[in-house]
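In this section we walk through a basic example: taking a raw amino acid sequence and producing a predicted 3D structure, encoded as discrete structure tokens. The instruction is simple. Fold the sequence below.
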Amino acid sequence: MPKVVDHEDRRRRLAEAVWTLTVRDGLEGVTLRKVAAQAGVSMGQVQHYYGTMEELIRDAVARAVRALNARIEASVHAAGEASAETILRACLHAMLARDEEGLRLLQLSVAVLGRAVSDPSMAGVLAPNDGELVSFTAGLITAARTERGTTSRGDDRIDADICWTLATGLGVDVALGQRSPEAAMEALDYHLDTVLG
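The resulting token sequence is shown next.
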């Protein structure tokens, strides 16, 4: 009986090897040979799944972005039937690494930023224009203001966009060791208190 191969698992392992190497050596230090060694597979296997190094890196970054998004979604589900403000804070706090996996994902994102500056397609993978997330967050801001009994002082979509920009910037600080997750959370919560009134 032929062996059943889990192709998605192999791609995931190769992507995770890219994550590890990028965080350790920088994106310029990632080679197909190093990825194969890190993943414990042959060069042929890497080349079977990815025709070029660019294709492999693009897929690894896209998977990292999806993993960060999954952390945000998980925080929403964990909040359950909580208030809009609690859900809002949980979503934004998900960008501030408080565990090893979250920190690794943030560090990978920072390491890839240099490539994104000169490669618009990589910028699109790393920072997709996520109007849906901004709309969802704007709705939470509106609902949280209603819960608090405060009125809108401007455009909730712009406030939502600024909140994500701040959370992302604070996440970069955490990834670079410039700020602790707790200090980043304190700054983010201060801003949210100002936004919500």
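Looking at the output, two observations stand out. The chain is about 75% helix and 0% strand. The mean pLDDT is 87. In the next section we compare this with other chains.
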